[in-house]
Automatic annotation (TrEMBL):
Residues 14-226 form the Alanine racemase N-terminal domain. Pfam families: Ala_racemase_N (PF01168). This is Pyridoxal phosphate homeostasis protein. Keywords: Pyridoxal phosphate. Pyridoxal 5'-phosphate (PLP)-binding protein, which is involved in PLP homeostasis. HAMAP family: PLP_homeostasis. Belongs to the pyridoxal phosphate-binding protein YggS/PROSC family.
Length: 232
């Protein structure tokens, strides 16, 4: 089996899982976006997945992503997401290639991204990364601080708040984490009508996330295989 056949088979399995989970939850398949986590994988894999119909791709390292996106400018409908922890000094570079930053977790980062977007004369879609268990050392804004950060983002005029994302903590039942995120987004929508997206669920727990209302599952391993080691 060559790489294209491998990715096609993997995608078919993932699509079947998503469709089945949607059916069980009484939801339409179109309610859940599949975000392919292509970090550490070559541009050629993205091209294959694009030919298979995927349009949303996620990266977590600015330098790698910038180079990869540069190689794939011909994929005109590809939409790129930054999903990793982001330092403020990388904001200008990330705004140069990312269509959406899914990991905004501080006022200072939001301000840096807004400034970078403004300097390019554009707007940037963002998600809040929420730390459901309150351990912000792993990334994410505490639930108690979500409203403040959302307000900063909306008032900037350069960022468009699209919703929130989380990674289920290992110390918490995933169902609890996903339900908590849905509750956060539900409250966000009251003051920020554009904040409709719930990004939750990965290769190992996407069914659980979909059952709790996730609108985006981030899938890497199930699509592309075990993570390749990155160079130092």
């Amino acid at each position: 089996m060559n790489r294209a056949e491998e990715l096609e088979a993997n995608l078919a399995e993932v699509e079947e899982r998503i469709a089945k989970a949607c059916g069980v939850a009484g939801r339409e398949r179109g309610e859940v976006m599949l975000l392919a986590v292509t970090k550490t994988w070559p541009a050629s894999d993205v091209e294959i997945l694009y030919e298979l119909g995927l349009r949303h791709f996620a990266e977590n390292r600015d330098q790698e992503a910038s180079e990869k996106v540069g190689q794939l400018r011909h994929l005109e409908e590809a939409r790129w997401h930054m999903v990793g922890r982001l330092q403020r000094n990388k904001a200008k570079s990330v705004v140069g290639w990312a269509d959406q930053v899914d990991s905004v977790d501080s006022v200072r980062l939001a301000e840096a991204l807004a400034k970078a977007a403004r300097s390019r004369g554009t707007t940037l879609d963002v998600l809040l990364q929420v730390s459901i268990d309150g351990d912000t050392s792993r990334g994410g804004v505490a639930v108690a601080d979500v409203a403040e950060l959302a307000g900063v983002i909306t008032r900037s005029g350069d960022l468009i708040l699209r919703g929130a994302m989380t990674v289920a903590p290992r110390t918490m039942n995933p169902s609890q984490a996903f339900q908590a995120l849905v509750s956060v987004v539900s409250r966000l929508r009251d003051d920020h009508p554009t904040a409709t997206h719930v990004s939750a669920g990965m290769s190992g727990d996407l069914e659980d996330a979909i059952s709790h209302g996730s609108t985006c599952v981030r899938v890497g391993t199930a699509l592309l295989g075990s993570r390749r080691l990155t160079s130092p």
